[in-house]
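pinned: reference chain
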Amino acid sequence: MNLRQLRYFIVLAEELHFRRAAERLAITQAPLSVAIQTLEREIGALLFHRTQRRVELTEIGAAFRSHALAILERVDLSLNDVRDIVAGEAGQLRIGFTSASSLLSFFPNMICAFRQKYPKVQVTLRDMTSATQIAALQARELDIGIMRGKSDQQPADISYTRLIRDRLVVAMHVDNPLSKIDHLKIADLRDQPFLFYPPRSGIGIYDLLRELCAKRGFSPIIVQEVLDSAAIVCLAATGLGIAVVPSELQRINVENVLFKPLIDGDAVTDVWLVSRAGEPSPLIASFRHMVLASVKTWKLADPHNLVDVQGEDGMTGEPAEADGMVAPA
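pinned: its structure tokens
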């Protein structure tokens, strides 16, 4: 049994006349008769009563007609679904993001716009550290991600597009002596107790801070390890220590917490859009295009959102559509 036989059967069931059915199908009556006879042999029962004057559905033919219609409808729906997937307008998209990057104002707007433009796409959002995103992409458990990291730590099988370069800020209690410093530098943090992420957390900023401190001849004095970005800001309010965090964490409004930007030129962290290198998925390409467009719109909406800086693009295989920009504190 095949789809052609089912379509022939449905047309004949509608016309109840071999000549008219053959004309609709743009064939002669002979192949139509052969197809119906073959179908009846496979089913083991007559589907039509045939006389010289009329053609009628048998009881079995009437019952089979509803099943044949359902099969053909399901096939047509499946073909349409597959065509939508091929065109990048349907399917599943698994998006990774870091907790801090979700606070960038373009992130929720971009996700909302994508879901509205592609309502047939099942979007799954996963809060993941930068290292976990890379592992998930390599294991094909994630389709695309927004993460932090350094340009010299990029696996060859992952494509990186830098979205913004984000200024680091220091979260501290309002009474901390650092609050009196107008132009805060990393060297000013030498004797401060730090709240920081665990070393094996996979959070992109961990290695960066240690390198920044090492360049100034000291190691951060870590008094408390905290995995959650919101929690690290809340603990800064206790006066237990300071926290060096991405600038978007300033959106977390906690009483008695003051944020001060670091003015050092290298006190920045890159936000990347990452996916598997050479990924042919039209759906991933559609999402990538919308992310880059959203970042551009974010900049145009308020010129203070981003400040141009010099720097390597640190990416593979993609145009630097939103490269070389810093989000100020």
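why pinned: The two ends are 68 Å apart (CA to CA). Residues 304-329 have pLDDT under 50 and may be disordered.
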